[in-house]
Amino acid sequence: MTFSSFTGGAALVLGILIAFGPQTLFPVCPPMEYITMKCHSTARVEFALGLLIAFLGLLTLLTDSASFRCGLTVSIFLNAVLALLIPAVLVGVCPGVHMGCRALTLPALVILSGLLATGAAVNLGLYWRRGGEKKNG
Fold it and tell me: In Å, how far from its chain's centre is CA 123?
């Protein structure tokens, strides 16, 4: 099992967790009748990003081309950074410290996205290092 296969599998699993986690495992606040909560908007965006990340991970597992896998890994990295920024900076979650989305959803999404971005960055470093050795050798 190569590291790119591990990264593709991790992107597949973490993408699914990012997509479905805010609805099931670490839910956002219950809906209100007349107000759209920030955490609901975050959950919708994370659903789309999570599915995209999972799809990119699946493509990474299925492809044989190293340059295509490198491009997919760049895409996974950028989407993971975006998935990290959505709940933390761009859209946010509810402002109350006692709210469930701030106590559970925000840390879970930050941890999952951070792990994915770190794994993708390490994988990119390995690709570039391997590519540099081939050019020099």
Answer: 15
Q: What is the 3-class SS of 54-96, one letter each residue?
A: HHHHHHHHHCCCHHHHHHHHHHHHHHHHHHHHHHHHHCCCCCC
Write down the domain spans for the chain: 3-131
What pLDDT, in 10s, does the model give residues 111-130? 999 999 999 999 999 888 87
Residue type, 101: C
Q: pTM, whole model, 2 decimals?
A: 0.88
Contact 72, 23 (CB under 8 A): no
Report the distance separating Cα 124 and Cα 115, nearest Å: 14
Q: 12 vs 51, 59, 63, 64, CA distance in Å? A: 9, 9, 14, 17
Distance CA 14, CA 114 (A): 10
Look at residues 81, 57, 53 and name the one whose alpha carbon lies nearest to residue 6: 57
